[in-house]
């Protein structure tokens, strides 16, 4: 094997804090090695491929470390190289996971066997005497103390052995992360310590229950688990103060764990004359007695860190792109809500999304899911065996990547999982899985133990879900309903319960269907991308065999538009659709008729009837068309016109002809109306009087004529003023005036 590759791989192992094996073999097989310097230790493992693009993985089962590695070839990988590398890593992971499952299963069996054959530990055991503590439920096997290591469900996973001289070792292959040993009965105050002796001293000094985490690296996993299990308890991290060790790992890890769960940090105070090697509360116990331990713990409680507000400078923030599972629709680390009325297939859609995530499949817009991952599902409404699994199978899901959240174990007492209180416990379990990418909560209202119609209470209740998504980098998809009787309203307002459900979610989807069973998924809102648009879909119900019927989504084409319009259109029945069509026609007609300026309502009503529009339909279309009714004068009738912005042209830009009308009243009007008048005149007969008027009007800016009409002057008055000004000596007689008026009205009728 290339020496450079071997050296790179060895350096990577060392960078992870592990002692690399003396000889590294690049044969693509899994090899074990010791990570604690003992020849009997086999907790370390590695797998290295030396052919092609050199790559591999390594880790330590005892320390719960797992890292991947590839050789630095001095350039970016090609797409094919990336694909080969990903396939190789996947193969290594499968071997490693299989090996780990076997090791841990064997360890659980051995642990149970040894624990069952162990006897109650005597108080005069050498280690207990040396530390000045009691056994607190420990047992002894082969002369060594045996400390059981259990998870949140009290399941035994491994053992720690302690010799009389203080030497410690874990059962080979056993799990450590998230496991602890409990001393005392949980109460209002819980303490967490690294080692058994430290925990025993804290318990004997204070009477508080103590969780022994076994090492500094396990403090955070245990702290998170306890916070979820006992959300209302006051928790203290009793740190080892490794002051003479580089980085002070005991204090550093304890401080991190305390920060994660909002706990108090307690540190032993040895005073100015600190003995060599004194680091923990057992050392303080033996030097100054239990009273000193109690004082330090109670002092930490009394002097817990004050509440402060932290400020973050924008210049210190590194911008990050949104990590999309489905670009524009489903984002890693974010909360999403899928809402709709009953019977539209909300759960089926969610399970099809889950299937795509588990297989790295294709999304409705033909884009590809970046990489497959694990999916967690909690459902309070559908059966797992008879409904959810058949639907997953029908959708082509990789069932090996799907986990159902079933129940919660509280000290041996089982109860149904409650998303309102058990999210921290769920997060602990997620830490044991690799690449959790999606959590489905059905219904999301179950995550709110308080009043789900209260905005503040709903926000507080949903925050653990939001934090969960952010910390593990998974998308959370909560399913909800639309409130009955809300068709036509803004879709976001239709989501059942508090508006906080839609506000806190970064992306909200809406689903609905019409009377002809046409179904539609739309993007109601997005705070992290575009909203609007969606996809048509249908449901299929394949026979899965054995009397089991599944359901799956068949995606149709994409649709464009805002969510409210798309959903309102889809939800219309035949009568509503016909009514909407009639209103839309009336709306279009109003805009066209009133484009020439305001019209008396009584005339408009007559024209509507002639055009085949019911007056009630016209009135309902008035607002959508932008029509504003106004009184022409104080005593005059109503006139309908389109809402327009007031003109604010500078004086120097006034069109030619405005000054001519200044003495008539400074009239203002509408361009299209005056054009209609001019066009009407130009289409009249060739009578001299009409030709003269036509030529005269053609030179006028069109706004001037409409201004006269808008000022409520009758057309006869307009013509009379024109004749008086321009044709005082010309042939402007009653015949010409009547002809002009007739042609004008005919023109309006033809155009509308």
What is the total tally of β strands? 32
Strand order of the largest sheet: 19-18-22-23-17-24-25-26-29
In the predicted model, the low-confidence regions spanning at least 5 consecutive residues are 645-676, 678-718, 720-733, 743-752
Mean pLDDT over the full residue set: 80
Largest sheet: 9 strands, mixed
Give the CA-based shape: elongated
Q: End-to-end distance, in Å?
A: 88 Å
What's the short version?
The chain has 752 residues and is of the alpha/beta class. It has 24 helices and 32 strands. The strands form eight sheets. Strands 19-18-22-23-17-24-25-26-29 form a nine-stranded mixed β-sheet, sandwiched between helices. A five-stranded antiparallel β-sheet has the order 5-6-7-8-9, covered by helices on one side. Strands 10-12-11-13-14 form a five-stranded mixed β-sheet, sandwiched between helices.
Please characterize this protein's 3D structure.
- This protein is of the alpha/beta class.
- It has a nine-stranded mixed β-sheet with strand order 19-18-22-23-17-24-25-26-29, with helices on both faces. It has a five-stranded antiparallel β-sheet with strand order 5-6-7-8-9, covered by helices on one side.
- A hairpin with a 4-residue loop joins strand 3 (55-60) and strand 4 (65-70).
- The radius of gyration is 40 Å and the shape is elongated.
- Mean pLDDT is 80; it is low at 645-676, 678-718, 720-733 and 743-752.
Topology (SSEs and partners):
Layout: H1 3-15, E1 31-33, E2 44-49, E3 55-60, E4 65-70, H2 79-117, E5 119-120, H3 126-131, E6 139-141, E7 144-150, E8 156-162, E9 168-170, E10 181-183, E11 189-193, H4 196-206, E12 209-212, H5 219-229, E13 234-238, H6 249-261, E14 264-266, H7 281-288, H8 290-302, E15 324-326, E16 330-331, E17 335-340, H9 346-359, E18 374-379, H10 384-394, E19 402-404, E20 407-410, E21 413-416, H11 423-430, E22 436-442, H12 455-472, E23 475-481, H13 491-494, H14 500-504, E24 507-513, E25 519-526, E26 534-540, E27 543-545, E28 548-549, E29 552-559, H15 563-571, H16 574-593, E30 599-600, H17 601-611, H18 615-625, E31 627-631, E32 638-642, H19 658-662, H20 671-682, H21 688-698, H22 702-710, H23 715-726, H24 734-751
Helix pairs in contact: 4-7, 4-8, 5-6, 5-11, 7-8, 9-10, 11-12, 16-18, 20-21, 20-22, 20-24, 23-24
């Amino acid at each position: 094997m290339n020496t450079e590759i071997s050296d790179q791989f060895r350096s990577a192992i060392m960078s992870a804090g592990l002692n690399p094996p003396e000889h590294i073999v690049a044969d693509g097989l899994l090899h074990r090695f010791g990570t604690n310097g003992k020849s009997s230790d086999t907790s370390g493992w590695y797998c290295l491929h030396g052919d092609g693009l050199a790559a591999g993985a390594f880790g330590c089962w005892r320390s719960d470390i797992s890292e991947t590695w590839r050789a630095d070839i001095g350039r970016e990988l090609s797409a094919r190289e990336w694909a080969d590398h990903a396939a190789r890593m996947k193969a290594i992971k499968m071997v490693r996971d299989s090996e780990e499952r076997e090791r841990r299963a064997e360890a659980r069996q051995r642990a149970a066997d040894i624990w069952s054959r162990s006897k109650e530990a005597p108080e005069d055991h050498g280690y207990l005497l040396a530390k000045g503590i009691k056994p607190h439920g420990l047992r002894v096997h082969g002369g060594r103390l045996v400390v059981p290591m259990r998870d949140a469900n009290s399941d035994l996973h491994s053992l720690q052995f302690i010799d009389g001289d203080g030497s410690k070792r874990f059962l080979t292959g056993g799990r450590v992360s998230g496991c602890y040993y409990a001393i005392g009965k949980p109460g209002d105050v819980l303490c967490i310590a690294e080692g058994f002796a430290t925990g025993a001293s804290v318990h004997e000094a204070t009477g508080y229950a103590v969780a022994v985490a076994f090492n500094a690296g396990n403090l955070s996993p245990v702290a998170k688990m306890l916070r979820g299990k006992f959300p209302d308890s006051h928790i203290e991290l009793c740190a080892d103060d490794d002051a003479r060790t580089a980085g002070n790992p005991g204090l550093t890890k304890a401080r991190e764990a305390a920060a994660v769960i909002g706990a108090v940090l307690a540190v032993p105070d040895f005073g100015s004359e600190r003995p060599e090697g004194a680091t923990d509360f057992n050392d303080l116990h033996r030097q100054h007695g239990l009273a000193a331990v109690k004082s330090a713990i109670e002092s930490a409680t009394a002097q817990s860190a004050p509440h402060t507000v932290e400020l973050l400078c924008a210049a210190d923030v590194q911008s990050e792109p949104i990590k999309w599972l489905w670009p524009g629709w489903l984002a890693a680390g974010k909360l999403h809500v899928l809402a709709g009325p009953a019977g539209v297939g909300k759960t089926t859609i969610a399970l099809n999304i889950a299937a795509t995530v588990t297989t790295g499949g294709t999304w409705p817009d033909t884009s590809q899911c970046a990489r497959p991952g694990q999916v967690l599902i909690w459902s309070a409404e559908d059966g797992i065996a008879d409904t959810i699994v058949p639907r997953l199978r029908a959708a082509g899901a990789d069932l090996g990547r799907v986990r159902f959240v079933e129940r919660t174990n509280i000290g041996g007492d089982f109860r149904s999982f409650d998303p309102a209180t058990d999210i921290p416990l769920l997060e602990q379990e997620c830490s044991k899985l690799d690449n959790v990418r999606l959590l489905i909560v059905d219904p999301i209202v179950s995550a709110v133990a308080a009043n789900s119609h209260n905005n503040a209470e709903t926000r507080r209740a949903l925050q653990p879900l939001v934090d969960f998504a952010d910390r593990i980098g998974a998308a959370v998809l909560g399913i909800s309903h639309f409130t009955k009787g809300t068709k036509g309203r803004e879709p976001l307002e239709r989501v059942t319960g508090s508006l906080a459900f839609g506000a806190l979610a970064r992306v909200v989807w809406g689903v609905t269907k019409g009377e002809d069973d046409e179904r539609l998924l739309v993007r109601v809102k997005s705070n992290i991308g575009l909203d609007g648009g969606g996809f048509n879909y249908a449901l299929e119900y394949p026979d899965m065999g054995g009397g089991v019927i599944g359901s799956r989504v068949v995606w149709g084409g994409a649709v464009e538009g805002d969510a409210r319009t798309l959903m309102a259109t889809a939800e219309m029945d035949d009568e509503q659709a016909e009514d909407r069509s009639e209103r839309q026609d009336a709306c279009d007609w109003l805009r066209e008729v009133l484009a020439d300026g305001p019209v008396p309502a009584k005339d408009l009503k007559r024209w509507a009837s002639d055009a085949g529009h019911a007056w009630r339909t016209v009135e309902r279309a008035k607002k959508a068309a932008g029509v504003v009714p106004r009184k022409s004068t104080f005593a005059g009738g109503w006139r309908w016109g389109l809402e327009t912005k007031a003109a604010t042209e500078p004086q120097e830009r006034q069109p030619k002809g405005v000054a001519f009308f200044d003495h008539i009243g400074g009239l203002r009007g509408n361009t299209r109306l005056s054009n209609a008048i001019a066009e009407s005149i130009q289409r009249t007969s060739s009578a001299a009087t009409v030709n003269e008027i036509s030529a005269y009007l053609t030179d006028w800016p069109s706004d001037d004529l409409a201004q006269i009409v808008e000022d409520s002057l009758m057309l006869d008055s307009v013509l009379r003023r024109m004749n008086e000004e321009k044709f005082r000596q010309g042939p402007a007689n009653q015949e010409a005036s009547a002809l002009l008026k007739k042609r004008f009205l005919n023109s309006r009728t033809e155009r509308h």
